[in-house]
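Bug: token stream looks shifted between consecutive jobs. Job 1:
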Amino acid sequence: MLMFETAKTWERIASVRRSWVGVLFGHVIPLLLMTSIAEGYSLAHWGRVQDIGSRLKVFSLKEAVAFEAAQFLLMLMVVFFCAKLIKSMGETFHGRHTFDQTFTALAYGLSPLFILHFLDMIPGLTPWAAWVGGILFSLSILYYGLPCIMQPDPPHAFGLYLTSSLFIVMASGLVRFLTAWYLEGKFEKLNHLFPQG
């Protein structure tokens, strides 16, 4: 609903005041699990075209599960890292925000990024398409969400949004870079980390 009724949905989220643990287990983990299962299925059944010789590599079930588990953990790290960073940045803007507020704003704000990760099921589609679409939607949703959830002083709200957006783009972009390059076969030396066969 954040993508269609952004302001009303943020108001409902703000009124509920869930703890970060509730948001993590009730929202973030289920979304990441669903997209990981979908992409893992795609890797094991349809594979990915790798730049090395432009060959199609169909991943074994073990490889797909190991890759998706690593990607899942990396995305969780992005959420926690950025939430902590946004909380710290909020304090430089003379705000006193709780971790619950920053985690809630970030977790729900990144929903489009998580949801558009379903596009990674399409074997021929570049992984950057899902990331670009997801991050643009997420940043537009966070524009309303950060002030609604964190309630910074009005003169500082836009600065908090800009600095938060910059770190979110960098952190999620780094994860996308690493995962996309692995799927394209550019990290051959890492193949021994993921079980074969």
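Job 2, same session, no restart:
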Amino acid sequence: MKTLKLDSEVMSIIEKKIQMIKTKDEAIYLVGPVRLPVRLDSKTHIFHWYSWLKLNEIIDFGELINRLPSLNLAEFQQSSVLVYGDFEHSEHALVRLHSICHTGDIFGSERCDCGFQLKQSFQMIVEHGSGAIFYLANHEGRGIGLFSKTLAYVLQENGYDTVDANLSLGFQDDERKYDEAIQVLKALRTKPVSLITNNPNKLMALRDSGMNVIGRTPLWGGVSKHNEKYLKTKIERSGHLKEGGSL
């Protein structure tokens, strides 16, 4: 096993930016904040970035850092969160639980509306003054992974909708879980939040966790001829909420 020998100065810097969130015999290690300038239209806004790693054991920070070279973290993705404004203390903050979408967020694909939703969430939070975007790395393809999502796309090109494609590959319609993100959210903020979403499952997950959700902001748009069926399936088969901001 490769290890990294840290001097005291490096460790003292890291310890100021890392915290542990314990969950039974597991732990979530949250690192941040790091200043991250984000360009929206013609103006740069400063967000504060956090990333987290979940391990199936509890170890101290020094051991965690020493193990990093042998964990091969580049082989799988870690989630992160961008916070804006006084997220901890502001009376009203917006939250977006955004599932990673390699094709939509990075490539700008119009097969879905994910890229539009991500960019619009940034803008909404800046205009509001306080909020956070959770970028959930294990949610690709509604939690089935990038390779499986590619297979689902092949089925969709042969007449399957999003739901039937996932089911035909042996998955549930939606395999996503929000436990880790909610634990991190609670570590960053205890005051009420409003959720940017059309997905009732996200609302339910937050409410079931005891988080005080005081509102919902719908996020529809980015419609094209390439994703009309996809968006229609979200409403008709996955129960997404099209109108209004009520819970």
